[in-house]
């Protein structure tokens, strides 16, 4: 007997409610149309998308994979310059897209689990029907999840799903916060930094019959005299630094050093009957002053070793060598008087300018150049020399022992001085550092030259500082005109990718909770033998609250109703419900007493 005939006979013996029930689950269009949905391929698709948890497992796998890709990308580029990111799409855009994928696929199984738990909620004790509604809206968004969380008082397993939904709202923010772009200094290889230093002193003009020094050196003398507080920040050394941020290795340069000693004790005073007093030094340098006037100053330069006899100076042998070294440029004696605080006190200074070698440490940051002298070697003794074609001495060579200027290693330890350049500089300094200051016939101050005025304006107590400024200015002038360069490293300020891994702990915890929640829900479903209906609307329509169906369910089973009618007992899967739904046509009609209320009825 055909299957539909059996069903029809069974329905004739049923009550009206049972017949209605059978009609809902029996396909009216014949077995041929019904059988086409039971092919192997379509059956597998129904199992994959409807009956099993495979889709949820797949979604969770994609979410975990997205999180793993995020971690991998950040690990690969952490600590690297931002320009090392090779793609046109920005890193933040990629992270945002991956975070969206992670959250979307993570919430898909979480919402499915909440929908499944609404069925499991009623497998135990009797519960309020309102809970069914709360479970349903909890699977749809944060507001429902918050309601369910308080409904369950944070205690039931479904609370995990609600917490995951709420925590997922901030996962994007935590992920974005984990990546920063601080500015760091980074070496740049395509540019080279350089700074001048002097290995040789060979600066003179030979247009005239005798050599004379170059204008930059004369200008350096004036700069030193009129710069009262000359520091390295006021240095005329300008490095080549394309980016304004550069570092240089420690280096040495030929330099000019100064030393001054107070020789006031060597002054000899001669008083004349006319009221004129004469203050003189053993080298013949003297200052004449009238007893009624004050504020006089006299400067006198000499070439070669100090003309003051060594036995008149309380100096040790190391200090004397600075005065008598072949590298000595000039000696200058200064006699001054008329200090406002000590109007009748006269002082005398003996100063020397000589070649020396200095080591430096330099850097430039934000276009501010800073150069610091590290060490100095002043005992330059002529090691070798060279002669010109005429047989005259042409160049002195000075060697720095390895025990001095140790920070520069083996670099540039030999320096040279051209004799014609030295003679030209000595002649120029002998002329420039010569002058007097006194009162003229009208009683006003008069200066023989600008250098004398500069020394007087600086003060008689700052003679040593003035000569130190002159030495530094001469050193800078030699270096600026030199062709030697120390190569440094160009630094650029560029953003780096910095990952703060603690911020990534938040999305990791959220994904982990969602995995645990999925596993617990599947485990509990299998233990309860409740079908995996999840959020199926068909399951609600088929197994919703209906008093007539509830009354007849037990009799259906007792009478042994065969075929599709037996599936109405509550054991069918979602795939079976989908097959049934495609075969059943319904219509929304008014029903109940006096036609009030609406319901779906089979047509």
Q: Can you put this structure into words, describing what you see?
A:
- The protein has 603 residues and is an alpha+beta fold.
- The protein folds into two domains: 53-180 and 498-530, no CATH class; 187-494, no CATH class.
- Helices cover 40% and strands 23% of the residues.
- It has 19 helices and 21 strands.
- Strands 2, 4, 5, 9, 10, 11, 12, 16, 17 and 18 form a ten-stranded antiparallel sheet that branches.
- The protein starts with a helix and ends with a strand.
- The model is unreliable at 1-27, 304-323 and 546-568 (pLDDT under 50).
What would a concise description of this structure say?
The protein has about 600 residues and is of the alpha+beta class.
SSE layout:
Layout: H1 3-12, H2 16-25, H3 31-35, H4 40-51, H5 54-77, H6 91-120, H7 130-138, H8 142-151, H9 158-167, H10 171-177, E1 179-180, E2 183-196, E3 200-201, H11 215-226, E4 246-247, E5 251-262, E6 268-271, E7 276-280, E8 286-290, E9 297-303, H12 317-324, E10 328-336, E11 347-365, E12 368-377, E13 382-387, E14 393-399, E15 414-418, H13 419-432, E16 435-439, E17 445-447, H14 450-458, H15 463-480, E18 485-495, E19 498-499, H16 505-528, H17 537-543, H18 547-559, H19 574-583, E20 586-590, E21 598-602
Parallel strand pairs: 3-15
Antiparallel strand pairs: 1-19, 2-18, 4-11, 4-18, 5-11, 6-7, 7-8, 9-10, 9-16, 10-11, 11-12, 13-14, 14-15, 16-17, 20-21
Helix pairs in contact: 5-6, 5-16, 6-7, 6-9, 6-10, 6-16, 7-8, 8-9, 9-16, 11-15
């Amino acid at each position: 007997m055909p299957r539909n005939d059996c069903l029809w006979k069974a329905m004739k013996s049923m009550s009206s409610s049972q017949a209605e029930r059978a009609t809902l689950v029996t396909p009216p269009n014949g077995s041929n149309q019904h059988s086409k949905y039971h092919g192997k391929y379509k059956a597998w698709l129904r199992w994959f998308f409807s009956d099993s948890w495979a889709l949820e497992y797949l979604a969770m796998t994609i979410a975990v994979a997205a999180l793993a890709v995020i971690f991998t990308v950040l690990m690969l580029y952490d600590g690297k310059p931002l320009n090392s990111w090779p793609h046109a799409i920005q890193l933040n855009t990629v992270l945002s897209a991956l975070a969206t994928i992670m959250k979307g696929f993570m919430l898909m199984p979480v919402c499915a689990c909440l929908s499944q738990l609404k069925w499991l909620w009623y497998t135990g004790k009797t519960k309020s029907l309102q809970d069914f509604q709360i479970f349903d809206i909890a699977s749809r968004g944060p507001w429902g999840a918050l309601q369910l969380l308080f409904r369950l008082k944070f205690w039931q397993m479904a609370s995990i799903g609600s917490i995951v939904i709420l925590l997922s709202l901030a996962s994007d923010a935590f992920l974005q916060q984990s990546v920063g772009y601080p500015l760091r200094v980074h070496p740049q290889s395509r540019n080279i930094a350089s700074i001048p230093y002097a290995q040789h002193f060979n600066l003179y003009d030979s247009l005239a019959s005798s050599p004379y020094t170059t204008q930059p050196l004369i200008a350096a003398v004036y700069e030193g005299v009129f710069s009262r507080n000359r520091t390295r920040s006021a240095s005329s050394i300008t490095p080549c630094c394309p980016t304004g941020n550069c570092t240089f290795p420690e280096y040495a340069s030929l330099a000019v050093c100064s030393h001054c000693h107070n020789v006031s004790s060597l002054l000899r005073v001669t008083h004349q009957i006319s009221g004129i007093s004469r203050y003189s030094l053993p080298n013949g340098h003297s200052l004449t002053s009238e007893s009624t006037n004050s504020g006089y100053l006299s400067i006198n330069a000499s070439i070669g070793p100090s003309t003051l006899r060594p036995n008149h100076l309380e100096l040790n042998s190391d200090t004397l060598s600075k005065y008598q070294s072949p590298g000595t440029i000039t000696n200058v004696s200064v006699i001054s008087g008329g200090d406002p605080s000590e109007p009748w006190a006269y002082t005398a200074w003996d100063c020397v300018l000589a070649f020396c070698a200095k080591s430096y440490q330099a850097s430039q940051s934000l276009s501010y150049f800073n150069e610091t002298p590290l060490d100095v070697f002043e005992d330059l003794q002529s090691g070798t020399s060279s002669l010109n074609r005429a047989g005259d001495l042409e160049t002195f060579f000075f060697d720095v022992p390895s025990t001095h200027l140790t920070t520069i290693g083996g670099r540039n330890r030999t320096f040279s001085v051209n004799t014609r350049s030295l003679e030209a500089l000595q002649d120029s300094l002998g002329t420039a550092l010569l002058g007097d200051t006194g009162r003229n016939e009208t009683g006003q101050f008069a200066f023989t030259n600008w250098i004398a005025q500069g020394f007087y304006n600086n003060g008689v107590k700052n003679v040593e500082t003035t000569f130190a400024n002159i030495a530094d200015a001469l050193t800078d002038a030699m270096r600026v005109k030199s062709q030697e360069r120390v190569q440094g490293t160009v630094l650029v300020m560029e953003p780096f990718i910095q990952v703060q891994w603690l911020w990534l702990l938040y999305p990791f915890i959220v994904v982990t909770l969602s995995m645990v929640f999925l596993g617990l829900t599947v485990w509990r479903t299998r233990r309860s033998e409740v079908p995996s209906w999840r959020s199926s609307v068909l399951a609600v329509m088929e197994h919703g609250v209906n008093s007539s169906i509830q009354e007849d369910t037990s009799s259906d089973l007792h009478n042994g109703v065969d075929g599709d009618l037996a599936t109405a007992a509550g054991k069918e899967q979602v795939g079976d419900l989908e097959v049934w739904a495609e075969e059943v046509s319904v219509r929304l009609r008014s029903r109940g007493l006096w036609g009030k209320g609406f319901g779906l009825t089979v047509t």
